């Protein structure tokens, strides 16, 4: 980056707000898609909307692409600094600005950590409902960019359903307000459009979120199955019988084995084929009856055993077995590929079986831990990327699994986003004409393509895209 | 015409998925008729005539009292097919409840009122029919009492699925509970007010929707739920100043939305509304004219947002053929 530009940026952001030292920049070379590494040319850390706006104005003047980045836990390479991008980080924009208890909402900066937000409003018997498994690390800004999900989205909806309004800085530095203050939304749903736009439309510098009342009571069950087929059929049966739990998750044997060997061991047997974690929440009157019924459905569906959490500690242990399973994968092999496919619930048993077949055919080690209640699968392949032959098998298996899910009526990503990782799969679910329309809409916000370039849409689709910006570096 | 192209058909319904895909000419009534035998329903109860099509409901984004628990069409539509001004048939979203593939043009199209394209097909999420569906109707002496009752219900966290205040025949609070026997009985016990009437299912709500649908004048004031008393007071004063005939009020109490209904308006009503809207917007609220015979009052949108919306419209309809 030109020395003069660095000085101009330091004048706005302060010394600590501009990182250009190559050694330090390495920290930002990758996000949760660890197979890809690109060191950004600089990392900029604004403190508020105005600084973000002034920063983007300078970058626009010098035609420098940029990528907004939260905690870097994203699994689709959304925060990867491609095309010579500068990273805009929000570690200095991590405050909850206002909490409106009566109206159940809060205004936050993008760098607020998801679980910290819930902890902050907990004294008011409120919480922020969308709970991605990475919630102790990931940020609200990142959640907005990806339309993040999580186990409790089955009942409460994804991030999209919890964002009321946004202050957005567009790539040219212009500041716009999307969404209503107190009244009804008017005109096109720009908030709905912005949520899930994966940081390619601009930067949300203030976010008004919906808060949810803490449920009066929670009932958590774990059902252990000897056949994975039985577990996935029970999922359908619970829904078919008119129950919509707060969460309905599945974890298979491979994942359980990894968790039980780790610090988060929950005392689960490792000879079961898989388990369901089922949770109900709400007013305490009638909740036990729902949990009883679910337990009956599990037993009738072939469960070996059904355990019920007797207190908060037991509940937390049950959830660790699901939420920490991803982290426990690190014990099995150095690299991991998590897929994020969705299928209609009714197709779960057959698609799961197909996925196990595909993994076996390619001689790969596979775990499954996922949001069974909404058909959102996370087949997870563990491997070692130092062996190209193994990588080739992983990629082939991944493609086949994706195809199987789309063929079953599903889609290519339920919550992790397209990013870099799934650009090539977009054509499985969208026509060229549909993707061209998306390109045109992106062009409304990001006309010169500098805002998180080379993400979401296949490059061949956006024919008008001018190409990478010219960037000069100091020697 | 092939079955997939017939807008009047239910295209796909797999109860185990809690999703239904229909041509856009299928009506609300038809959808619920198909789903009720499977103990499911579409959680949308807008105040529209029963034969209104789902395409129209999605295009206008209208919702009714169930929005308190279940949201609006924006929260329920999973995917749609749209025909654009130049004849392209585009599909966005899908049939699954978790979907972040590509940009969310479904949200853009819901509520776009036909300005971006003609919706031909919709996939929409369903909910299980509750075992018990009971509504409390509580007559109160004044709006103030109604607002107090609502505040108590909210702070007691009774989890109703709908919470309305209506002004006819006299001020009444309506509280709707869904759930199993125990949960609903508990909610009713907590409200426990003398003289409350209990109703089952849709009765009370159908009557409310019908009255609202038939009112020639329909104006909506909205602001934060905590400002409900102020918003309602403003609406009542406004109804007098604007010369509305036989004004009545229906209020989504948990959402802070006041609907002013009337049989007729005065010659100067539109001007009065536009002036009032400016005042309401200063307090962060909105005023929208749904129906006003003889006058069209367009929505007020700030310049920067309007520019973005115009560019979006241009992307879909460069020749400006659609409204």
Written overview of the protein:
The complex is a heterodimer of chains A (475) and B (323). Chain A has 16 helices and 20 strands. Chain A is an alpha+beta fold and 475 residues long. A seven-stranded antiparallel β-sheet of chain A has the order 15-12-14-13-18-20-16, with helices on both faces. A five-stranded antiparallel β-sheet of chain A has the order 5-6-10-8-9. Chain A starts with a helix and ends in a 30-residue tail after the last helix. Mean pLDDT of chain A is 92; it is low at 464-475. Chain B contains eleven helices and 15 strands. By secondary structure, chain B is α+β, with helices and mostly antiparallel strands. At the A-B interface, strand 9, helix 7, helix 8, helix 10 and helix 16 of A face strand 5, helix 5, strand 7, helix 7 and strand 12 of B.
Characterize this entry briefly:
Chain A has 16 helices and 20 strands. Chain A has helices at 3-13, 22-25, 49-61, 114-121, 140-146, 153-156, 190-194, 228-240, 253-260, 287-300, 312-323, 325-328, 348-361, 388-407, 426-429, 432-445; strands at residues 18-19, 43-44, 66-69, 86-89, 96-100, 105-108, 126-127, 163-169, 175-178, 203-210, 212-213, 217-225, 247-252, 274-282, 303-308, 335-338, 341-342, 365-370, 376-377, 379-383.
Throw out a few tags for this protein:
heterodimer, A: 475 residues, alpha+beta, 7-stranded antiparallel beta sheet, 5-stranded antiparallel beta sheet, 20 strands, 33% helix, globular, B: 323 residues, 8-stranded antiparallel beta sheet, 15 strands
Give the topology.
The complex is a heterodimer of chains A (475) and B (323).
Chain A: H1 3-13, E1 18-19, H2 22-25, E2 43-44, H3 49-61, E3 66-69, E4 86-89, E5 96-100, E6 105-108, H4 114-121, E7 126-127, H5 140-146, H6 153-156, E8 163-169, E9 175-178, H7 190-194, E10 203-210, E11 212-213, E12 217-225, H8 228-240, E13 247-252, H9 253-260, E14 274-282, H10 287-300, E15 303-308, H11 312-323, H12 325-328, E16 335-338, E17 341-342, H13 348-361, E18 365-370, E19 376-377, E20 379-383, H14 388-407, H15 426-429, H16 432-445
Parallel strand pairs in A: 2-4, 3-4
Antiparallel strand pairs in A: 1-2, 5-6, 6-10, 7-11, 8-9, 8-10, 12-14, 12-15, 13-14, 13-18, 16-20, 17-19, 18-20
Helix pairs in contact in A: 1-3, 8-13, 13-14
Chain B: E1 10-14, E2 19-23, H1 28-35, E3 40-41, H2 54-60, H3 67-70, H4 73-76, E4 77-83, E5 89-93, H5 105-109, E6 118-125, E7 127-128, E8 132-139, H6 143-155, E9 162-166, E10 172-179, H7 181-191, E11 197-200, H8 203-214, E12 217-222, H9 228-241, E13 248-252, E14 257-262, H10 269-282, E15 286-291, H11 303-316
Antiparallel strand pairs in B: 1-2, 2-6, 3-7, 4-5, 4-6, 8-10, 8-11, 9-10, 9-13, 12-14, 12-15, 13-14
